[in-house]
Amino acid sequence: MKERIIVALDTDSPDSALAVVEALAGEVGMFKVGMELFPRGGPELVRKVRETGADVFLDLKFHDIPNTVAGAVRSAAALGVKFATVHASGGREMLARAAEAARGTGTTVLAVTVLTSIDESDLSEIGFSSPPADLVVRLARMAVREGIGGIVCSAREVAAVRELAGRSAVLVTPGVRLPEDAVGDQKRVVTPFDAMRNGADYLVVGRPITKAADPVAAARRFAAEMRSGREAGPRGS
Ligand code: C5P
């Protein structure tokens, strides 16, 4: 299960990111480099993480005209990242072009549906009339139909998204905490056991591992909980 843990490198310092990567070498499968770290660490940081044998999830959430997003996905694939994100709300053609740009590469494009920071009143202010949960399903369905390989979704959405996306879609879930962890600024946390039982394929974990007194021990606790959840869940049975 340790390959299914993605550790979020939420820092603006490439050096401290690499220290986390080295401390967890061999304990987790992937590291997430996002828009705080990438503008500072760039492709060189991605290469250094990959040199340790870990995969990289490049979480830059592309959202632009189809041609530009296709180019962005090609550039991400050229870096050898395993996952790269786009916003599903970029529309059908953007999604199709992103999926096409990744085809035949080692990169899987994941779609982000509705950010968990957005609620119903934010949506109506922007001009969307559906409740967030309906929009998540609508956007996930569209992304999968256009050939996108996976969806980033909360553990609460994972079962519904699995049903519409099928077994082959990659479902990646953030917002997970061990029962003994501090919740921090996350509002609706789920345990790794429940996330895996609900059908997640990968978990994105930040502070519960990176800020733990013993990050290696924390990563092992996550892996053990995930294994039990997978065995207990519909996909493990
Ligand atoms: O430290 P923590 O485990 O809360 O970090 C979770 C990571 O997952 C962060 O990089 C955060 O931006 C990301 N994320 C999230 N919730 C979402 C989408 C992404 O926590 N809905």
Task: Please render the helix and strand layout as text.
Blueprint: E1 5-8, H1 14-23, E2 30-34, H2 38-51, E3 55-62, H3 66-78, E4 83-87, H4 92-102, E5 108-112, H5 120-126, H6 132-145, E6 150-152, H7 158-165, E7 170-173, H8 192-197, E8 202-205, H9 207-210, H10 215-232
Parallel strand pairs: 1-2, 1-8, 2-3, 3-4, 4-5, 5-6, 6-7, 7-8
Helix pairs in contact: 3-4, 6-7
Bound molecules: cytidine-5'-monophosphate.
Residues 8, 10, 34, 116, 154, 174-175, 184, 186, 204-208 line the site of cytidine-5'-monophosphate (C5P).
Q: What is the architecture at the second tier of CATH?
A: Alpha-Beta Barrel
Task: Give the count of structural domains.
Answer: 1
- Please give the share of residues in helix: 40-55%
Main sheet overview: 8 strands, parallel, barrel
CATH first level: Alpha Beta
Q: Structural class, judged by helices and strands? A: alpha/beta
Q: What is the CA-based Rg, rounded?
A: 17 Å
* Number of helical elements: 10
Overall number of strands: 8
In terms of quaternary structure, what is this? Answer: single chain
